[in-house]
Write a structure and sequence with these properties.
Blueprint: H1 4-17, H2 23-59
Length: about 60
């Protein structure tokens, strides 16, 4: 078991070794996440609409 001060010192040393992304890298990555979320949601929306249309066609529901 180590003292809390020793633990905090070691945590700071390890945090200093982390390669933090630049602001530009962070913004690009964030934008890519938003683009992928939009694309995935559009794909799932249209897939759901097609499946619903096929089911209505096959089962004769709603018109």
């Amino acid at each position: 078991m180590q003292s809390p001060t020793q633990f905090i010192r070691e945590v700071r040393q390890e945090a200093a070794k982390v390669a933090w992304p630049s602001r530009k890298e962070t913004l690009i990555t964030t934008a890519m996440v938003f683009v992928m979320v939009i694309l995935a949601s559009l794909f799932l929306f249209f897939t759901d609409q097609i499946i619903a249309w096929v089911l209505r066609l096959v089962l004769g529901l709603g018109g």
